Each structure stands twice: as structure tokens, then as C-alpha cells.
Amino acid sequence: MRLQKTFLLVALFSVFNFLAQELPPIVKYAPNTYGAGNQNWMISQDQNQYLYFANNEGLLTFDGSKWDLYPSPNETIIRSVKVIGQRIYTGCYMEFGYWVRQKNGQLRYTSLSKKIKSKIQEDEQFWNILNYDQWIIFQSLNKIFIYDSKKDSFKVIAPKSGILKSYRTSNAIYYQTVSNGLFEIVSGKESLVSNDPILKNNKIINVFAIDQGLLIQTQWNGFYTLIQNKVSRFTTEVDHQLIANNIYNSQQLSNGSFAVGTVSNGVFIIDTHGKLQHHIYQSKGLSNNTVLSLFEDIDKNLWIGLDNGINCINLQSPIKSFTDNSGVLGTTYATKLIDGKLYVGTNQGLFYKKYDSNEDFKFINGTKGQVWSLFEWNGELFCGHDSGSFLIQGGIAIHIFKSSGTWKFSPVPNRKDLLLQGNYYGISVLQKINNQWVFKNKIAGFDYSVKSFEISKQLEVYISHEYKGVFRLQLNKELTKTAPFYTYTYPRKGKNASLIQFNGAIYYAYKEGIFKLNPSTKQFIKDPFLSTIFSKDEYTSGQMIVDNSNRLWLFTKNYIHYLSLSKLSNQLKDNVIPIPASLTNSMLGYENCTQLSNAVFLIGTADGYYTLNLNDLSFKNYKVAITNIAVNRLNEGSYNYAIPEDGKFNYEQNNIAFNFTVPEYNKYINAEYQFLLEGFQEKWSAWSSKSAINFKNLPPGNYVFKVRAKFSNSLLENTASYSFTVVKPWYLTHLAVFIYLVLFVVLAFYIHRAYQNYYEKQEAKLIEENNLLLEIKELENEQELMRLRNEQLSQDVDSKSRELAVSTMSLNSKNELLAFIKEDLKKTAPSDTSNIKSVISTINKNITEEDSWKVFREAFDSVDKDFLKRVKQIHPSLTPNDLRLCAYLRMNLSSKEIAPLLNISVRSVEIKRYRLRKKMDLTHEQGLVEYILTV
Q1: Residue 326 has pLDDT above 80, yes or no
Q2: pTM
Q3: Rounded to an integer, what is the distance from CA 164 to the centroid of its chain?
Q4: Measuring CA to CA, which of 78, 87, 467, 833 is 20 to 30 A from 521?
């Protein structure tokens, strides 16, 4: 069973084919992008290249950057729109009129149908608007209203049967009625052109003028010609498809070809000879298969109003894309053009077809799986594959190496019979023997994955490994092994890094820049010119590709670069194509580019590929314009202001937003803008694709807003500007400043007077304070004098205390001496008793205690006045002897010193002291002397 499934899968791939039609780019606008209804019934464009769509929700406008929706006047579906001069005419349910763009950029509606309201039938809708000279034709399914824009008058054509549709050629207006044929409006009246049964029985979708007559497009039966009143079939290559599909509308393009929109099969583009140029439908990139409207704009883009969205096909784009919406082809990793066949290697395998044809892609059996590279060598095609290496011969793949997946091939210098191949596990050699390529050997000594490598004439191999860094190998002449390899510390490893040989030099690229190998030092040096390509956060991939014309291609976030040698010097020229990686949808790190002809290049994407014609990259000179100026106060709604006039805004309206645009509608090449607000900024902003800028809280002053743009990396000629003024608030006007000046002078005068009074008061206060300070100083001097006197008194007291103590001690010594002499006299012989008694009597008189105490008391009172009185008052029970003891203790005399003064023993003094404590009622903790000293 598994074998049967495998066989079936191989069989399916062997017969697999799908229409390999390379189509112009399609820009898709979904309803949630433009913010309106799904269906778009008619499209028109004004002289500014702004587009207008008759949408379910109203009139939808698009200036290339910004969408705006204007609800219909009666909130019904707008069915028709036509720009004629400065007016945008629209028709809807029971209403038609025109819109005019005001100075502030907004549209204002004026009703025309109100003038003839009585002539409009109930439930009537206006499905088409045509113009011819000064007349505007509004067509419903019942009547045709002809409006004379000069006379502001109407004519009405009301056929007996209903109107199917109206048409315009270069010199006539036609319409078809139900079952009556084709009519022309002549002098404001109907005129039958043909009632041929074919025209009566088939709904006519459009009428085109040809040399001999008319070419008529029908709904179900294809094209017919009407020449000299004879109806004949006009045969095309797609008649069977046109007949099988319900044709809803058609449009003749500027090159004479026809775009035919269907209800269920997209759009067909047929040339004047009836040959199919493109068939674009949903699986080929269209958003929807139901085409409600078609319109070719000034740039020859085909706009398609769909049942669910809007698409724009860039018919004149230098880019043509092939998109595999089925997923069968997969992501393109490698392409090669050889022998008139285009080979495409993807993650699904290898496919091929005849180049420059709508032929189907065919799968090459045996190559199912990931293809990494395609390499041509001497007319033979090699395929690097997850399963190894293949030799491709036509539609046949020969598996020549199976041991490991193969990344890349490279020739060996001076050896046409040898090829190096980078594998998952190192480098191996292929050799051509007997006209057959076979595996020769693996090079020993290096086993890392080799995705990107180059070999020099000296058999040096340089390898880039994005996770391990850059290596240099020196191979032996037999290509069997390498000497110990060298690992570079600079430059470092990098994600999506790449290494390639270009113009005789080896380059390495990663996020830090592009480095060139110095062949003398064998070191990499940063190339300042090339490294600017990755500046400003442009790096996404270091992938480098050299084409057949010796150009070096690089891919960044917003640009594709190709570098070529200058014709007059050896310097490289950087050519920039402003196609961002987000639009091309390429695989980062696996970008691939193949030269198909001198100017046409094929670039692989995640869902197919696209071709780029360098010769067609020139575009017309667009103009940048300011489309909207919105001003608002903080946290309030905005107001739109006139664009042609200089602005003058209130100081509170200092939040100003500008919208600007280049009205181009190219999918891959977008405009970039740069702005400057003079008076607020000194330098132009960085280039950006954003088409709006908001300045907040601008200070009062004069400003000039300037914006310029570049398209396809070319600076547009014009610079749009807008001058405006943010008015000063009333309190900053000249009158206010004058009033402030007057008030300031008056205030200064009063302040001066106030300060003068203040300083006078301060002066008086200062004088008063100085006088007070002088008084205080005098008091301080007096206090100092008193202190000195007190000190003197204290010194006197101390002196007297010392004198008293000396006196007391002298008295004590005298008494002791007299007592000693007295005792000696008593011991003398009694022979002279009378004389001795007389001496003893004299001695007794001189050592009387009362006399000593009286002298001591007088001296003590003179030193310490009232002490004895204070003690007596506190302790009334004290005796004179107690007071005498207190006096001695206050003099801080010891018991030993007091004993002689009292003429008693030391023991008796201690007893007296104890009794004195009792009389004073002192506690055990209180000291007697300490207490007496404090009294």
C-alpha cells in the first residue's frame, strides 16, 4: 500500500503542471484598510490623480496615502461616480449631484436632482454617469437625465422600455433598452443605431469605437462588430471562457487592449487582435473573482472594484510576479536560466519550463525536497539538494552524490574537471571522469557545515559559518586534506552572514558591515563605502550575489542594492531600488537573484518569484502635495484649514497635523518623505514612508512647513510648503506688552517708594537697635565690672578665710605653747613659788577659751556673714559650743585640727560631731560637713 502511495505521488509530480503566468503586481485594499463597504460600483480620477470610488457606504476617496469616506447625502449606496473638471458627480438612490473640494481639502455636496425631483420615478437609482462636452448624463434603469452644466438646465429621455446600460465612445453617447436594440443620443433625443436581433437579445456590456464602426461587448456571447449596420462576431482566444462566464463590465485601455470583468472568474486582458495577455483571478492574486467596476488611471494602472475590496494592477510596472497560491511550487531558493529553460529550485523540489512563455512548470522527478542551489559549469547544471548533489540534464536529474546534503558548488582554479561542493559535514570534491561527474573524496580536517565558501588561486578556502564564524583552510594540491584551519576572531560570526568573491576580492557581510579580505595580510578589513548599506538599522541579511554582468546584489530592510563598476574608474557605484523586504516576501538569508537578460532579473520569494527590468525603472516625475491640515486644541476635535492660504491659528490651537502624499499606486516602489518645520526645526527629518506628521504644543510664532519626496530613489522636483502663524495669546500682544510696560513703570515707582520707606524705617530701626546694643553693651560692661568686683570680693573672702585659718592656727599654737610652758612651770622647784604662780596666772589669762572664741567669731562673721544665725534659725537647739564646732567644720577643719581649738581630745571632737548630727536630724546618707557647707 505504501509503495502504491509513493508511486502515485511520483506520478502526480511527474505530470504536475500549473499555469506559470508572470503577472503585473497587484495592490490589494481590503475593506478594513479603506474603512468603507465591501462593494465598489464605479471608479474615477481627478487631475490631482486622486481616486474616487462609488462605495456601498458613500463616496470613497484615496490620494495615494490616505483614505476618506463621505457618506451619501441620503445615506444610500452610491452607484456611480465621475470626475468632470473640478466636480465629482455621483448618483445614488433617488439622488444625484456633485461634490467640490473646498480650500480645506474637504468635499462639499450640492444636489442637482432636487431641481427635478418630480421627474424622478419612485425607487429609481442612478447607475452610470457620462459626459460629453458641457453635458452630464445621469442614467438610471428608467430614464436618462441630461444636465447642461453651462445653462444649469435638464433634458430627460424616457424610453418606453427600461434602460439596460449607457456607453460613451470618443464622439457619441449610446444606450441599450430592453428588447429594442442600441440607441444613440443625438441633439438631446434618442436615435436608433441598430435593432439587430443579436443586439436586442443580448445585454450589451460596453461599446467601443473602431475604424469602421463599433466593437460591442455582450454579457454572454463575447464580442461583436457593428459595421455599416451589420453585426459580426469578433473572435478572440478566450471566446469559450467569455461565453461561459457572466461578463459584468469592460474597459478599453490606453494601449488599445481590453479589460473584461466577470462575475465569477476575475478579469481578462485581451489585445486588439483578440489574444489573451493576462487572465487574473482569485487564485492568481486577485482579492475576489467578482469584478463590479474597471478603471484605468493616468499612470495606466488598472483599478478593479470588487465585490469585496479594491485591487490595483500595475500594468506598466517594471516588475512582473509569479505567485504560487496553491503552495505546490513553494519557496524559491535558487533559479537558473540555461538552454532556454528556466529552472526553479524550491523547498518542494526542482521545476522547469520554457523561458518567456506561459508554459506550465514541470516537476523534475527525483528532486522532491529542499533545493539549496543551482550552479552552471561549462554548460552543465548542478543542483545542491538536501539529498546531495544532482546533475540536471533537461528534465532528468542524475544523483551523483548522496552522502550528505549539498549547499553550494565552486570550481577549482585551473581545473575544469574538478568542483568543490560545500556539504552539511565539510567539503568534498567532484571529478569528471570519462565525461561523467563522480564523487572523488571528502577533504579531511574540516567537518563543519559549509554553506558559504570561496576558494583562491592558492587553494585557500574561506568559509562563513553563521554560528561559528569565519575560517581559512589551506588545501593540499591533491585536494584531499587541509592543514590546521585558522579561525578569525574578527570579523565575528553573524546571523544570515555571507561570503562571496567579487571583482577579484573576497567579501564577508554581516550585521556589523561588509569586510574585504586583504590578500597580503589575509585579514578582513571593513569597507567603509559598502558598510553604509547596512547603516540606519537596514540590515536584514548579509546575502550577496554576483550576476553574469559582474554586479554585486545585496538586500536590506527597505532597499535592493546592486553595485557595479564605474565606467570611468575602478570605484563601485551603488544603485538603489526602493523595494522593501516586506513587499518582496523573500526568505531572509536565502535571497536569490538570477540574470535572465541584460536588464531582466529574477528574484525568488516565499511564494514564487518576481522579475525586475532595470531599463523600465524610470518613472514619471510625480509631485508631492499637502492634502490636509488639521488643527486642534488639546483633547478636543480637529478642524481642517484651507491649504492654499497662509494659516493663522489661535494660540490654543497649537496642535497641527499635516497629511501629504505623492499620488502613486505602485506596489513595490513606494514614495519616501522628508519634512522640515522652519521656525521649529533646523534640519530636515530622516526619510520615511509615513505620510503624516503631527506637531504638538507649538509656541507662538511664524512657521513654514516644507515637505519633499523621492520616488524610485529619485528626488522629486517640487517641495510643497505651507506658511502659518500661531498667534500670541492676548496677554502677549503688543498692546498687552505696552500695558505691561506702563504697569511695570507704575509698579516700579510704587515699589521704589515702598523700598524707600522701608529703608528709612530700617534705618531708624537700625539706629534704635544700635542704641539698644550700646545700652546692652554698657550693661554687659557693668555686669563684667560687677563680676570683677565679685571675683575681687571672693578673693578677699578667700584671703580673709586663709588669714582666719592662719590666725586660728596661730592662736591654737600659742595656746599649746602656753599650756606647755605652764606645765613646765608647775614642775619647777617650789623655791620661787610666788613668782611661778604669778606667771601661771598670766598664762591662764592668755589661753582663756572664751577670749579665743570671741576673736575667732568676730573674724568668722566678717568672712561668712550670718552663717551662724542661719544655722541657729534652722536648728534652734544648738548650743554655743555646737555653733563653734559648725564654724570650724564650715572652714573644712579636720577633727585633729579642731581638738586643740576646743582644748579637748580628738575623741571628744568625734563625739561632738556625732551629737551635732543627731541635733540636726541628718540621715545616715547625709554627710555633716557637706550639709554645713550648703547652709
Answers
A1: no
A2: 0.74
A3: 53
A4: 467
